[in-house]
């Protein structure tokens, strides 16, 4: 059993979980970001933003495009061309009603 007090073990497990989530999402190009936002409150772009935030907090340098390529497994524009479809009016309405508001 893993020792939850071992920080390096925890970091390794968290990294493995992130990679598994990333790979799962990459295998599900049919799942649209707007649907993820409406159901879960986050999407691939959120993951990329969080990844970039972590890199910057650690003293690294990373652009939004670099972070998105890590999460999407390809350049963002290429992913959009391959997988993104026009959002339905219902999905757009749900997003507008539930989207995070800046305070």
From TrEMBL:
Pfam families: DUF1244. The lineage of its organism: Bacteria, Pseudomonadati, Pseudomonadota, Alphaproteobacteria, Hyphomicrobiales. This is SMc04008-like domain-containing protein. Residues 31-96 form the SMc04008-like domain. SUPFAM superfamilies: SMc04008-like. InterPro entries: SMc04008-like_domain (IPR023163), SMc04008-like_sf (IPR036810).
């Amino acid at each position: 059993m893993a020792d939850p007090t071992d920080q390096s073990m925890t970091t390794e497990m968290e990294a493995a979980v992130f990679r598994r989530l990333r790979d799962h999402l990459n295998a599900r190009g049919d799942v649209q970001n707007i649907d993820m936002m409406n159901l879960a409150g986050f999407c691939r772009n959120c993951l990329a933003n969080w990844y970039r935030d972590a890199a910057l907090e650690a003293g690294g340098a990373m652009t939004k495009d670099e972070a998105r390529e890590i999460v999407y497994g390809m350049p963002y524009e290429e992913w959009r061309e391959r997988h993104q479809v026009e959002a339905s009016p219902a999905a757009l309405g749900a997003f507008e009603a539930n989207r995070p508001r800046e305070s």
